[in-house]
Amino acid sequence: MADLNAFVSSNIGVIAIALVALDAILLVALLLVARRARQLDRRLASMTRGGDGQSLEQVLATHLDRVDAVARDLDVVEARTAILEAGAPLAYQRIGLVRFNPFEDTGGNQSFALALLDGKGTGFVVSSLHARSGTRVYGKAVTAGVAESTLSDEETEAVRLAMASRPGSSRGT
């Protein structure tokens, strides 16, 4: 023990300087740790922003509940979409309209032939013949683009326009 006391007594200046340097290093390390802790506090505060002071765990639980709700809504939308897609081929998608004047004693193209067909070309043609004495309306069935009865030139043109149209668009003259 006497040797240790002698060593410390003879080197007290060096030991004091070493301890001051060690204190300075520890102070710098402490400042760096404090700075890092402040940064982490800011990041945590930004992650829980809008969470009414909730913990990060509560914020994540709320977020996961929202994700689950969106997933359930998506399942409902997918089911509804499947129903709509199944019925789409049966909907009237192809439209052809021809306006014409069948009689010389009437003005304007007030008569028309309207073809409404589904994606497979099945539907009907409605024709309206307007004259001074009255208007007559006719309907004729169409299957796969072919009428079950004889069509007038205007009705044939309406079916042709409908068959040539892209589903969902309308064409006519």
Layout of strands and helices, then pairs:
Blueprint: H1 2-10, H2 12-47, H3 56-87, E1 94-100, E2 111-117, E3 123-131, E4 134-143, E5 146-147, H4 153-164, E6 170-172
Parallel strand pairs: 1-6
Antiparallel strand pairs: 1-2, 2-3, 3-4, 4-5
Q: In words, what does this structure look like?
A:
- By secondary structure, the protein is an alpha+beta fold.
- It folds into three domains: 1-47; 51-90; 91-167, no CATH class.
- It is built from four helices and six strands; from the N terminus they run H-H-H-E-E-E-E-E-H-E.
- It has a six-stranded mixed beta sheet with strand order 5-4-3-2-1-6.
Mean pLDDT: 87
Major beta-sheet overview: 6 strands, mixed
> How many angstroms separate the termini?
117 Å
Q: What proportion of the residues form beta strands (DSSP E)? A: 15-25%
Total of helices = 4
**What oligomerization state is this entry in?**
single chain
Helix content estimate:
40-55%
Q: From N to C, what is the helix and strand string?
A: HHHEEEEEHE
Specify the structural class: alpha+beta
Q: Strand arrangement, largest sheet?
A: 5-4-3-2-1-6
The best one-word shape is: rod-shaped
Radius of gyration, in angstroms, nearest whole number: 43 Å
Total count of strands: 6
